[in-house]
Design a protein that fits this description.
The complex is a heterodimer of chains A (577) and B (495). Chain A has 577 residues and is mainly beta. In chain A, 6% of the residues lie in helices and 44% in strands. Chain A has five helices and 37 strands. Chain B has two domains: 348 residues, TolB, C-terminal domain (Neuraminidase), CATH 2.120.10.30; 104 residues, Immunoglobulin-like (Sandwich). The chains are: A mainly beta (577), B mainly beta (495). Chains A and B meet through strand 22 and strand 29 of A and strand 9 of B. Strand 29 of chain A pairs antiparallel with strand 9 of chain B, so a sheet runs across the interface.
């Protein structure tokens, strides 16, 4: 069955877009003709926060001109690269192995499988990409090859190939398949207009849609925008809204309505309940349809919000109407948006940001590496508290006003690690590990010595001592298909000491690596020599430990890697920053 | 709006005109001291919080964003000074001190020393000297430090958590860190410091800001073992290091809504402020200070030149020790700095560097951050050089010979006295106002005048206005008001 909410709509010609934006129901949608070979596909693709393209698939005819305007709306750099059929992952991986040449080459590998590409687009940049669609039919991927993005940030051009239902399309990211990427900002959705539009707001807390006719209105008014917007209530929690008006139907036929809301909503057309999306729930979309005659149809939309996030989205489609927005989707962030505006950019050298970092103790030392992998070393426990990819840190929180609060890392693929101290002198094999219970817990019997910066990249080596042992701790960033960290730990001294490589609810060995919990984190070791990592169960958790018998010095090379399988799976439920 | 301002200006000038016989020829500060703003290169944000000279003659300057710049030829033409980034990523450092080949700085969580080892003018080693105090992540948990004292120790004052309570080790304490990196708990009772430094004898003084247990911002002397007024951090008397330092919790707790002299009787360790900078009059937030140790900066050798962040000014403090307690007089000194002054550094050549930022609290200067340079123009302003307490009044010494007629005239002087409530509530109004009667003004030397009053009040700020006094060459006093914090009344002289 044809899905009216298919992103195929993104292909409409600009002149038609204009019309559907202005006139509801009158745009003459001649679906067939817009694919005429002699007319260009004109399309806007935007790189969005959370490693997503705003358009994840589109159609083109063999030999058709394609004019793409690629915008970067995100806070980090992106590109867009078309590849030959089936070559997306290969190209993305090749880009990651460009090493030092990556920037100069715009992260585009010298491969025949690369067809067309934009340069690296910095935040706010745009680039027009024009090419002629291949004569050969097929599914041509496009992908951002900027560091590590290729696994999740991509789409596909269908050349003379029928698109499957979007929910079953394996050529687009899971997040787009499940609709999780919808942010309401898709420029290809036409703006509808509810005429004679009034709203009435009510205060109250409900678990089910109340009978608004029995309630005393909090406020009411008219809106010329024609778009049902929960913001009109002027309330953020515990409120209800009833929107009423008319929609103009130009063509008799069956119309589909898609109603998404957080929390409940109900749509009536001509006094008939068309979509019932009642109840307290997160953003949930339900659909309904109704046959309508041409002329005015009466619309009533009921909505209530109990607490937390609030969203409302109503779209309609039908004869001659592809996709029209009738309600504005409002996303109230769960957390206050973290301040930005002073990004600490990493170019050729490692940089340090020592401050109150969310996810570490107040003695967090964040390090951003040119390899686009970053970490936060916690000088309360001498442990790596966090690892992440991409953008490093933003100083805005601490560099404006009095600088209150803990700043979360920028970037993506953030992993929060257990911050328990890395070394301890256990009395016995079942002696519990000293744990970092609170944010301010400091390592017992361990002294932080500081760090020194080395090499032309000025990467830090941290130093600390535990009892009579002295430790240097050098995280070495590794460029590659997914950048990762090798932590080179050198212990000097004499005697027995335990090293905690990881802890979690579960630790499972997968080939050479250990999966920690159900998370992105994988750890492993290289050059183990006689060292023998063991997994022990203690204090209701699993611990990956290495017993060290130091006589002079011992070196541990621990890998901290991102589990790509996990990331791909996780992205079915939305990008977690 | 414009009308209002005009009206106000008109009113103000008329009003002031009646008090001071304003005269176009009257001297102004800039006749004696020149303030030059050092241009900060485009793209550099340096919320100046620490200034120190390096052995190579360059000036190291740190800022609240964690950066340290090195300025070449800091005494040269301001626009020719070259800036290079020496270090970054430090956690809100609030002082710099160079010693033993290392540049020390106090970060929020530790005393650190850094060094450039490969000669590229950028620090490569950041060594933690001591991080024995706690931080919870509250922005108020500032840490200020000094240069080494004669013993080699660096003194560190730690703001309370949220400036109200002590949530983690040593918040609200003064610590010393020895050369070897050992932490010595030194004093309790700190509230919200704005700076700490050493006087010419190597004794530590710190600025504490108006708030709970601090009626007005002030500069306080820190004798080891003392209690500086805010009992919020007393729980740390239980720490082993405090016991080892033989510091004991005072037997009595201070009572709120009291006065300093009363509580000093009850709490023996309580050290009263040495210099009160009357709130809203001389400043709002006392911060760092410097002194001219060799007299190249004019006539105020060894007096403390104390910054105020909000007012963007530098005040001047004359100190003396009476009955073993520091006290003295505060005067206005210089205004017109670029931003909210935090840090002061006196170069041996007699050049004063002042830097700061208005971030978070605002400042009159108007710039978000600045670093200014002050030079003395080799002309001595007519000022009250010293104001010493006597058993029955004060002895004034002036920087120039006085006109005996006006200096000996009772009508040239005016005195008021007042104090602040010592209380757990935030700040205090001015209370217990008195008007000591000036009963004598005897010119005792070419530059000295002995003032006698009917009554001195222990614990009060004695505000002396000497607006009628002229110099021998008939100039008015540039800053004719002295604010003397009278913790102790000296005994009558035997002779």
């Amino acid at each position: 069955m044809k899905n009216e909410f298919d992103l195929r709509i993104s292909l409409v010609l600009k002149k038609y877009i204009y019309k559907i934006f202005t006139i509801f129901g009158l745009a003459p949608f001649l679906t067939g003709s817009i694919y005429a070979q002699n007319q260009a596909v004109e399309l806007e693709i935007r790189a969005k926060a959370g490693l997503q393209f705003s358009v994840v698939r589109f159609d083109a005819k063999p030999g058709q001109s394609v004019h793409l305007n690629v915008f970067n709306d995100d806070e980090m750099a992106h590109n867009l690269v078309f590849t030959k059929a089936g070559q997306r992952i290969a190209v993305a991986n090749a880009a990651l192995n460009l090493g030092e040449d990556a920037e100069a080459k715009n992260w585009i590998p010298d491969l025949d499988s690369v067809l067309w590409s934009t340069p690296i687009l910095k935040p706010g940049d745009n680039h027009e990409l024009k090419f002629t669609a291949p004569k050969e039919k097929g599914i041509y991927p496009y992908v951002c090859t900027f560091i590590g993005h290729g696994f999740v940030m991509y789409g596909a051009m269908y050349v003379d190939t029928p698109m499957p239902d979007i929910s079953a399309d394996q050529n687009i990211p899971e997040i787009a398949r499940t609709g999780g990427s919808s942010t309401g900002s898709d420029p290809k959705i036409g703006k509808g207009k509810i005429e004679n539009f009034t709203y009435t707001a009510y205060k109250g807390s409900w678990n089910k849609m109340p009978d608004f006719s029995k309630l005393k209105p909090h406020k009411n008014g008219k809106s010329s925008s024609g778009i049902a917007d929960p913001g009109l209530a002027g309330l953020s929690e515990n409120f209800g809204l009833v929107f009423e008006g008319e929609i103009n139907i130009t063509k008799k036929g069956t119309y589909d309505f898609s109603l998404g809301s957080d929390d409940g909503s109900r749509l009536y057309i001509n006094d008939k309940l068309v979509v019932d999306n009642d109840g307290v729930h997160s953003m949930t979309t339900k659909k309904g349809k109704i046959a309508l005659d041409s002329g005015k149809a009466k619309l009533k939309l009921e909505y209530f919000e109990k607490g937390g996030q609030e969203e409302l989205a109503l779209e309609m489609s039908g004869p001659g109407v592809k996709r029209l927005q009738l309600a504005k989707q409002v996303i109230k962030p769960k957390k206050a948006a973290f301040p930005s505006g002073n990004p600490i950019e990493i170019t050729s050298e490692a940089r340090i940001y020592r401050n109150f970092i969310d996810g570490a103790s107040p003695r967090g030392i964040s390090v951003g590496y040119p390899e686009k992998v970053n970490l936060c070393f916690d000088a309360n426990t001498m442990q790596i508290a966090m690892l992440w990819h991409g953008a490093f840190m933003d100083g805005a929180k601490h560099w404006n006003g009095r600088g209150q609060g803990f700043q979360r890392p920028s970037g993506h693929y953030l992993m929060n690690l257990k911050r328990d101290q890395p070394f301890a002198q256990l009395k016995s094999n079942d002696d519990p590990w000293p744990k970092a219970e609170g944010r301010d817990t400091r390592a017992k019997n361990i002294k932080f010595r500081g760090y020194f910066l080395d090499g032309k990249e000025r990467r830090p080596t941290f130093g600390y001592s535990i009892g009579e042992f002295s430790v240097t701790d050098y995280p070495s960033p590794q460029a590659g298909s997914m950048p990762f960290i090798i932590r080179n730990i050198n212990v000097k001294g004499t005697g027995k000491i335990w090293y905690l490589a990881a802890a979690g609810e579960s630790i499972t060995k997968q080939k050479e690596l250990y999966n920690i919990d159900n998370s992105m984190l994988q750890v492993g070791f290289s050059d183990l020599g006689s060292l023998n990592p063991i997994i022990r169960e203690n204090s209701n958790r699993k611990e990956l430990l290495i017993e060290l018998n130091v006589d002079g010095q011992v070196t541990i090379k621990q890998h901290y890697r991102w589990n790509v399988e996990y990331i791909l799976k996780e992205h079915t439920h939305g990008h977690k920053n | 709006m414009i009308k209002k301002i005009l009206l106000f200006t008109l009113f103000a000038s008329t009003f002031l005109g009646q008090i001071i016989s304003a005269n176009a020829a009257d001297p102004v500060e800039s006749d004696y001291y020149q303030i030059d703003r050092i241009p900060i290169p485009e793209g550099v944000v340096l919320e100046t919080s620490g200034i120190e000279m390096l052995p190579n003659g360059k000036l190291a300057v740190c800022g609240r964003r964690g950066n340290v710049y090195v300025l070449s030829k800091p005494l040269g033409r301001p626009e020719e000074i070259k800036w290079t980034l020496y270090a970054e990523g430090l956690h809100e450092p609030l002082n710099l001190a160079f010693t033993d080949g290392w540049l020390y700085c106090t970060q929020r969580g530790e005393l650190t020393r850094m060094k450039d080892i490969d000669g590229d003018d950028r620090a490569d080693i950041f060594e933690t000297v001591n991080d024995g105090w706690g931080i919870t992540g509250d922005y108020h948990e500032y840490a200020f430090g000094t240069r080494p004292d004669p013993n080699g120790d660096m003194w560190i004052v730690l703001c309370l958590t949220g400036s109200f309570s002590s949530q983690i080790d040593y918040r609200g304490w003064c610590l010393r860190i020895t050369k070897e990196g050992e932490l010595i708990p030194t004093a309790s009772g700190i509230r919200s410091p704005g700076g700490i430094g050493l006087n010419h004898l190597g004794e530590a003084f710190y600025a504490d800001n108006q708030g709970p247990w601090n009626g007005s911002s002030s500069l306080k002397h820190i004798p080891p073992g003392s209690f500086q007024g805010h009992p919020g951090g007393w729980k740390w008397f239980e720490l082993d290091a405090v016991k080892k330092a033989e510091m004991k919790r005072p037997v009595n707790e201070p009572k709120s809504e009291s006065r300093y002299p009363v509580e000093r009787e009850r709490v023996k360790e309580l050290t009263p402020p040495a210099l009160v900078f009357p709130h809203g009059v001389l400043g709002n937030s006392t911060s760092g200070f410097a002194y001219d140790g060799n007299g190249k900066f004019g006539p105020f050798k060894n007096q403390l030149l104390v910054c105020d962040q909000t007012f963007s000014v530098v005040n001047r403090g004359f100190l003396e020790k009476i009955n073993g307690v520091y006290q003295g007089a505060a005067f206005s000194f210089l205004k017109g700095f670029g931003s909210g002054n935090i840090s002061a550094y006196m170069h041996p050549s007699g050049t004063l560097f002042i830097g700061g930022t208005d971030r978070g609290w605002g400042a009159r200067g108007g710039k978000r951050f600045a670093i200014d340079r002050v030079i003395w123009k080799n002309k001595v302003p007519f000022e009250i050089h010293e104001m010493r307490a006597k058993s029955d009044g004060f002895e004034l010494s002036f920087t120039h010979e006085v006109d005996a007629k006006t200096a000996g005239d009772l009508k040239s002087y005016n005195m008021s006295a007042y104090t602040y409530i010592y209380q757990s509530k935030y700040g205090s109004p001015v209370v217990d106002k008195l008007t000591p009667e000036i009963i004598g003004a005897e010119v005792t030397g070419p530059k000295t005048v002995r003032i006698t009053v009917d009554k001195l009040t222990k614990g009060h700020v004695h505000e002396l206005q000497a607006k009628g006094v002229r110099s021998l060459d008939n100039k008015p006093i540039l800053h004719p008001i002295g604010y003397y914090t009278l913790n102790e009344i000296p005994p009558a002289e035997v002779n």
